[in-house]
Amino acid sequence: PPERLHVALSRNAYDIVIGEGVLRRAGAEMAQRLEGRRAVIVSDQSVAPLHLPTLRESLADAGFTVAGEFLVPPGEASKCFTQFERLVDGILSAKADRRLAVIALGGGVVGDLAGFAAAAVLRGLPFVQCPTTLLAQVDSSVGGKTGINTSHGKNLVGAFHQPRLVLADTATLRTLPPRELRAGWAEVAKHGLLQGPLWEWCESEGPRAMQGDPEALAYAVLESCRLKSAVVVDDEFEMKAEGGRALLNLGHTFGHALEAECGYGGELLHGEAVAIGLGLATELSARLGLCSQEMPGRVREHLREVGLPNRIAALPRRFSVERLIARMRADKKARDGAMRFVLLRAPGDVFTESGVTEAMVRALLSE
Ligand code: NAD
Ligand code: ZN
Fold first, then answer.
1. Does residue 333 carry a catalytic annotation?
2. Which of 175, 203, 228 is the last residue of a domain?
3. Residue nearest to atom 21 of ligand 1 (CA)
């Protein structure tokens, strides 16, 4: 039977349903929660041939009418104004009323784009997430952040729009390219470090999950969603000055800078950049005397075991330290040009810190 998590947000509570084959229950699960019986589906051209027929059939069985299907090209470039406009126009052409549901079937790109369209059309249509990448199942489909990219940077235009339902079908992960599966694992390892006991589970079961073990993957998704949704319930709109949603940025100050230097589009996947960032954040914590000296080695060893890059020097490309530092200062989460890091005392004991000196970061990145 699938696992269920209830996310009790004050204004809109919803369920996350996780397991093998839950996509086949999409229609039935939606029928229990939504008033309307019309929906549009948003997906990408790689995912649609693989998994859209299952969703379509399940909706028909539950009495839903699919009023439109919109496919975007796979890849980050589809999180743009052009696709957003196309989608909004398509949804309105499907005679949208406030009961028309928008279903995202795909990775984080489809989820962020479809979610933003759902947030915008008629100031909010019911939104259902059917994440098909590990990254989307453990991270992007939960939490209500939606949006697109602009020439000024990633995710700079968007809205908070919580889904009414998340259906994470772990069977869809079997068609995912292995490199994408591993990239998603970086966020699982991050959740492990934030949570504590989950980190030790990652160390022992991560390699098995990366070989595609369905039970290990389902557990990783379940525990990740549990951790992330608890953080989101605590700080839905990222208003807390300390802790809260900002903690989910562990490894991301470094990760975003590396990703931005590479340009978005393949050379370094988000999860790969985050993996290196997790190694660096732990190393920084050890040098500041916050965590044990063995912790950075443990983190890097785990990342190596699951097939993720674990240090900058392991990458083919060389990076300019000054450019990375400039990127970190300009990060949208930085305050007044001070780099903001999430540091770790031990797995399960993390905090945000803006007082790290630039000299320290420069030394770390120069190795
Ligand atoms: P993605 O959506 O681009 O998917 C990665 C690739 O896998 C694509 O080529 C896609 O076509 C393919 N794919 C997806 N599912 C598949 C399947 N089951 N079988 C075969 N191929 C499949 O990338 P992603 O890593 O899922 O998401 C990255 C995006 O998520 C970024 O834009 C990032 O900003 C966003 N994100 C958002 C949040 C949030 O809170 N909203 C959090 C983290 C990341
Ligand atoms: Zn991330």
1. no
2. 175
3. 176
The candidate with the shortest Cα–Cα distance to 120, out of 82, 99, 147, 83, is: 147
Task: Report ipTM (2 d.p.).
Answer: 0.99
Crossing angle of helices 295-305 and 197-210, in 10° steps, is 20
Q: To which H or E segment does residue 227 belong?
A: helix 214-234
Final residue of a structural domain among 152, 175, 198:
175
Task: Please give the Cα distance from 191 to 283 (Å, whole number).
Answer: 18
What is this structure's pTM? Answer: 0.97
Best CA proximity match to 62, nearest among 106, 26, 90, 13: 26
Answer yes or no: 242 catalytic: yes
- Is the minimum distance from the CB of 175 to ligand 1 under 6 angstroms? yes
Residue of 201, 360, 192, 366 lying closest to 289 (CA atoms): 360
Looking at residues 55-62, what average pLDDT do you find?
98
Which ligand 1 atom is the nearest neighbour of the CA of 133? 15
Q: Annotated catalytic, 270?
A: yes
How many structural domains does the chain have?
Answer: 2
Q: Which domain holds residue 352?
A: 182-365
